[in-house]
Amino acid sequence: MGKFSRTELVSLWGARSLSVIFGVVSILFFGFTYIFGIDLTRGARYSFVYFPAVIILVAAILAQNFNRQFVQSKFLNVSICKTTGKKAVILIWLMAFLSGLTVVSNLGYQKYYRPDLLVSIIEKKSDKPIVIATTHYTHVETGEFMGIAWSMRKVFQKKLQHQCRKESICQENFRVDRSMSFAPVKFILLHQGVDSKNQVNSLQKIINRLEYPFDLWLVNFASDFNIAVENCQVDKGAFPLIDGYKYQLYHCNLSGG
Question: Would you list the domain boundaries of the chain?
Fold first, then answer.
């Protein structure tokens, strides 16, 4: 077989094929992001397109070095990098395993959406009925609201379980006191195709039909913040930044106070 054995040739051919696949996918991502303006890099789920190719490519590279008696980095030509192939593969596997642990424990990967943090702020700031409004364009906004609702549900269930000892008592408390964690919550999605001014007018028409007083939370609202909402005043307090959610709190009363 010359310089390479049959196994090495097969592995080399497979590595080159996977490299081509990875290169083509990278070009497609680049084109969608920078030519068509569709930023696929924001969604981690799109990365799974090329993850299998990357995993197999790395596995093929490691397999080439596993049985070698001596492995040394060509880029870091120092004695500390010299080791056997098995030790090098085990070390890389251990690093990958530890990296995976940081991801599943929320230490090494920052989530783009953190509805749990927003819900904790809503819980602290609002003791009146809650109205959460956003501009609805695609399923993305629907998912953002679902995240908020799901986080509220988990907080409610956690507090309910903490206060109750037996299932019968929990059911009784659930019927009697539904507001032990949150005031009543309403969600408003203003659909696309409406300009900024009309979005505010549409929001005003909806909240005028609601019963006062209540707290209005604008979440990822397309219009600029500090908009004028009748009978509502902006909360001037300091609020922390939250990944994936831009928000503003209004206190709404019929008196405008």
Answer: 6-104, 115-252
